[in-house]
Design a protein that fits this description.
Number of helices: 3
Helix content: 55-70%
Oligomer: single chain
Largest sheet: none
Strand content: under 5%
Number of strands: 0
Radius of gyration: 40 Å
Structural class: mainly alpha
Length: about 100
């Protein structure tokens, strides 16, 4: 009875793995192409390649704000003025607290 249970457990565990095995088909399902079909395919390929040659080259991406903004950001004088004001406040505040 144990052997039967063991065999059933192995079968249940192996069945999902068996489902993942790909099915190989080595025979061709379709017949080979005729000479007319090959010629038509070559003509389509040639027409496609010629149409690709007619596509113009892409131009560089446009930047509508490129003329407005500069390359380097300008130094902001307001930042340096605000930092000097905060230094002045901190020195003034320390002198009043000492009194």
């Amino acid at each position: 009875m144990r052997a039967l249970r063991l065999a059933a457990a192995i079968m249940l565990l192996a069945s999902p793995a068996f489902a993942q095995v790909p099915k190989l088909n080595l025979l061709q399902d379709k017949p080979s192409k005729t000479q007319d079909e090959l010629d038509a395919e070559k003509a389509q390929d040639k027409a496609y390649k010629e149409s690709l040659k007619k596509i113009p080259d892409q131009k560089a991406p446009s930047d509508p704000w490129g003329t407005v903004r500069s390359d380097a950001p300008p130094a902001s004088p307001s930042k340096s003025a605000s930092s000097s004001k905060s230094k002045a406040k901190s020195t003034a505040g320390s002198s009043t607290s000492a009194n």
